[in-house]
Specification:
about 80 residues; mainly alpha
């Protein structure tokens, strides 16, 4: 997988905590940040799914039946 270099700014206390954790675990800070983002994105996936379900329940969105999707994709 390709890597992209990013520059970020952190509050001083957060940066210190990241340094301490990286030293204690013997890991690169970038790996810790990557893992933290992956966990956070999993959390956001759940939040998005809950929002979409709520939107469906409130009639703001509607589901497309599987048979209609198959027809749109040319599987029938």
């Amino acid at each position: 997988m390709a890597h992209v270099r990013l520059n970020i700014s952190l509050e001083e206390e957060l940066a210190k905590e990241l340094d301490e954790i990286a030293k204690e675990l013997g890991e690169k800070k970038s790996h810790i940040i990557r893992d933290a983002l992956m966990y956070y994105f999993d959390y956001l996936d759940i939040k998005l799914a809950e929002k979409r379900l709520k939107d469906i329940e409130e009639g703001k969105e509607e589901l497309i039946p599987l048979e209609d999707v198959k027809k749109m994709l040319g599987f029938e």
